[in-house]
């Protein structure tokens, strides 16, 4: 793995970090730009992407009827413009979510709709898109993502005990996409502090994740720097767009791909928060500074230990990096298979910084490992998170937006 710093290529990507393939990828790029300006990240980011992409997929399939719809249940409209339907859905959703960004949204909409011939088909498509967005917006209105923060301190020895209220714990009770509840794939408890597995992970993170680690290589430090929260989610949408373009996906296929990806990432945060606040496990910085209190002779305390990355103010187990990577890679592999898949992802702030991968699994693995090299996670938490993410992807891909009956019949 290596970072590429070619100024010319970086300049080409400065205005578009997602490969431009069709109306679906165009609007995903617009959404990323809108939320960058609005300073949105984490669960609100994934929630917005899921709402927009589900609306677009439902709108496109109201016209083309290639895949089942997630929410929409109105009559099909085969004579309408599917492109206009997608544009109408995306515009309507983003305006509802980010009204302060209406100038950027309308600019994107003007470019989108100009590619569709004027007439009844376009007008009908726009209306279908608006209706799909309204249906998704209404369905998610009470999903608990906007509930007040809550704080549940736990005083049990050996758990992560915060000193300030953590970020967004309300999402532990949020409504998942296509799941019965947030605890549907809740993992088993983290390893006992006295176990050999815990000692293995403790010492690995202590050695490789320290601020002044002698074992972390310059290449590993470079990867840590790239995989900040800013790139944590958008890079998976970049990868999806490039793979879609290289495989020549059609409009409905692309709408399904991005809807599944966005829902999977939205669920990653919701299921993560449920498990995090159920187990409330401590972070490496707390664990290592209190290594003499864990009952494990193989964990030596370092009272002054500090990680390379700043420690997030929420519990350690399971890892969001593991779940996000597992969920995204799972969706991409469900759509494109598990073979080689070359793509390049670009830093959202500095387009000269890029990383190249030959598979979704490779990118997911690096996204996990940087949390060890950055000193904020244990390996087991990352592996458990990856497994959770893949279960999320498998459930969505096998249960929703499946080929419509006429498509299934034709395949027989």
Per CATH, what is the topology?
A: Vanadium-containing Chloroperoxidase, domain 2
Compute the gyration radius: what is it? Answer: 22 Å
Overall geometry comes to elongated
For the largest beta-sheet, the strand count, sense and barrel status come to: 3 strands, antiparallel
Tell me the number of structural domains: 1
Query: Spatial order of the strands in the main sheet?
Result: 1-3-2
Q: Unreliable segments (pLDDT under 50, ≥5 consecutive)?
A: 1-16, 148-168
Fraction of residues in H or I helices: 55-70%
First-residue to last-residue Cα separation:
42 Å
Residues in β-strands, percent:
under 5%
List the helices and strands in order: EHHHHHHHHHHHHHEEHHH
What is the mean predicted local confidence, pLDDT? Answer: 89
CATH architecture: Orthogonal Bundle
CATH class: Mainly Alpha
Number of helices: 16
Description:
The chain is an all-alpha fold. The protein has helices at residues 7-13, 23-37, 42-64, 82-97, 102-114, 120-139, 196-208, 218-226, 229-232, 234-247, 251-279, 284-289, 320-336, 360-373, 379-399, 405-411; strands spanning 3-4, 343-346, 354-357. It has 16 helices and three strands. The protein has a three-stranded antiparallel sheet. It is elongated and about 75 Å long.
Provide a compact summary of the structure:
The protein is mainly alpha-helical and 412 residues long. Helix content is 55%, strand content 2%.
List the helices and strands and how they pair.
Layout: E1 3-4, H1 7-13, H2 23-37, H3 42-64, H4 82-97, H5 102-114, H6 120-139, H7 196-208, H8 218-226, H9 229-232, H10 234-247, H11 251-279, H12 284-289, H13 320-336, E2 343-346, E3 354-357, H14 360-373, H15 379-399, H16 405-411
Antiparallel strand pairs: 1-3, 2-3
């Amino acid at each position: 793995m290596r970072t590429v710093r070619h100024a010319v290529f970086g300049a080409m990507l400065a205005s578009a970090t997602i490969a431009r393939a069709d109306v679906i990828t165009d609007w995903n790029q617009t959404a990323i730009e809108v939320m960058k300006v609005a300073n949105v990240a984490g669960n609100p980011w994934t929630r917005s992407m899921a709402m927009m992409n589900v609306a677009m997929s439902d709108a496109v399939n109201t016209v083309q009827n290639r895949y089942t719809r997630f929410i929409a249940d109105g009559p099909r409209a085969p004579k309408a413009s599917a492109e206009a339907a997608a544009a109408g859905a995306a515009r309507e959703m983003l305006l509802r979510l980010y009204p302060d960004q209406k100038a950027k949204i309308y600019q994107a909409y003007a470019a989108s709709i100009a590619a569709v011939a004027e007439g009844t088909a376009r007008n009908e498509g726009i209306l279908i898109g608006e209706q799909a967005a309204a249906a998704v917006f209404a369905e998610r209105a009470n999903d608990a993502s906007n509930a007040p923060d809550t704080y549940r301190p736990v005083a049990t020895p050996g758990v992560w005990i915060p000193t300030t209220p953590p970020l967004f714990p309300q999402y532990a009770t949020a409504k998942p996409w296509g799941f019965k509840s947030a605890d549907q794939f809740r993992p088993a408890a983290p390893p006992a502090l006295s176990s050999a597995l815990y000692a293995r992970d403790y010492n690995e993170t202590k050695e490789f994740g320290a601020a002044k680690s002698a074992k972390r290589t310059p290449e590993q430090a470079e990867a840590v720097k790239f995989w900040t929260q800013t790139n944590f989610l958008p890079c998976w949408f970049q990868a999806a767009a490039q793979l879609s373009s290289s495989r020549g996906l059609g409009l409905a296929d692309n709408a399904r791909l991005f809807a599944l990806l966005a829902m999977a990432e939205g669920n990653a945060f919701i299921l993560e928060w449920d498990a995090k606040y159920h187990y409330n496990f401590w972070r490496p910085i707390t664990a290592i500074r209190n290594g003499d209190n864990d009952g494990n002779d193989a964990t030596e305390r370092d009272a002054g230990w500090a990680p390379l990355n700043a420690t997030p103010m929420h519990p350690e187990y399971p890892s969001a990096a593991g779940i996000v990577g597992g969920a995204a890679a799972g969706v991409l592999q469900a759509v494109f298979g598990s073979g080689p898949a070359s793509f390049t992802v670009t830093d959202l702030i500095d387009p000269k910084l890029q990383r190249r991968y030959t598979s979704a699994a490779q990118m997911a693995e690096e996204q996990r490992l940087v949390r060890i090299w950055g000193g904020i996670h244990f390996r087991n938490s990352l592996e458990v998170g990856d497994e959770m993410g893949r279960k999320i992807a498998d459930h969505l891909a096998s249960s929703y937006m499946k080929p419509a009956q006429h498509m299934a019949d034709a395949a027989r």
